[in-house]
Amino acid sequence: MSDTYKEKTLEKKNEQDRFFQVDIKNRFIARLEDAMNGEANVAFAQKCGISEATIRKYRKGETTPNLENLEAIAKVANKPIWWFLSEDTESKEIEVKPPSIPVTFIDKFEIVASAGYGSYIDSESVIDEFPFTDAYLRRHRLSSADLCIIESRGDSMEPTIESGADLLINRKEFSPYKVVHGVHVLNLDGELKVKRLEFDLMRDGYRIISDNSLYEEDFLPRSELERLRIIGEVAMVLGKPSDYTV
């Protein structure tokens, strides 16, 4: 037998002895007897995928199991590993508390904004809440006091916004003296719409654009801005997000 083999064997034995002190070894033998419940060594060993000779040595205290064999025995016995090693045989419940993450709930209102030919506001009651982490809101410079969620209907803003998608709206006061652009929820002539706004300097007014090329765009001159009320900017598409960004 080579010196290298002897060293490895001794190292492995020492490692097992460190893992199984005398009291734990005796406790393991007693638990193993309980787990086998009179079953023959051969039958129990086959279930565990361990040799019969190994089980026999465990029961006599001649050797101790490594972690792999202990896991196999515990699985067959339908017991946790600690049951074979601990003085306490009662089930231990460990309370695991999730990390505390500050969350703000944003209200969803029973309002439908049309991404088609327009629809009127029927009601403004809160029907749901969506959680957002405070860290997310800070990162995107959003204030919970200015946010709400409404549903979009229609296909005029596809593929950016699908029909039935929930929209996170950043509400803001609209001033005709400040140019806005991007995807907004707007009230035009009393109808709630989701459209893309672009200010045209040459024509001095807003292009009201549908991302779906099947729909024609509208134009609202500066002289008719009293027809327009901007409810807010679409900060995020929820519910049915596409690969496109607004």
Automatic annotation (TrEMBL):
<protein>
    <submittedName>
        <fullName>Helix-turn-helix</fullName>
    </submittedName>
</protein>
<dbReference type="InterPro" id="IPR036286">
    <property type="entry name" value="LexA/Signal_pep-like_sf"/>
</dbReference>
<keyword id="KW-0805">Transcription regulation</keyword>
<keyword id="KW-0804">Transcription</keyword>
<feature type="domain" description="HTH cro/C1-type">
    <location>
        <begin position="43"/>
        <end position="84"/>
    </location>
</feature>
<dbReference type="Pfam" id="PF01381">
    <property type="entry name" value="HTH_3"/>
</dbReference>
<dbReference type="InterPro" id="IPR010982">
    <property type="entry name" value="Lambda_DNA-bd_dom_sf"/>
</dbReference>
<keyword id="KW-0238">DNA-binding</keyword>
<dbReference type="InterPro" id="IPR001387">
    <property type="entry name" value="Cro/C1-type_HTH"/>
</dbReference>
<dbReference type="GO" id="GO:0003677">
    <property type="term" value="F:DNA binding"/>
</dbReference>
<dbReference type="InterPro" id="IPR015927">
    <property type="entry name" value="Peptidase_S24_S26A/B/C"/>
</dbReference>
<dbReference type="Pfam" id="PF00717">
    <property type="entry name" value="Peptidase_S24"/>
</dbReference>
<dbReference type="InterPro" id="IPR039418">
    <property type="entry name" value="LexA-like"/>
</dbReference>
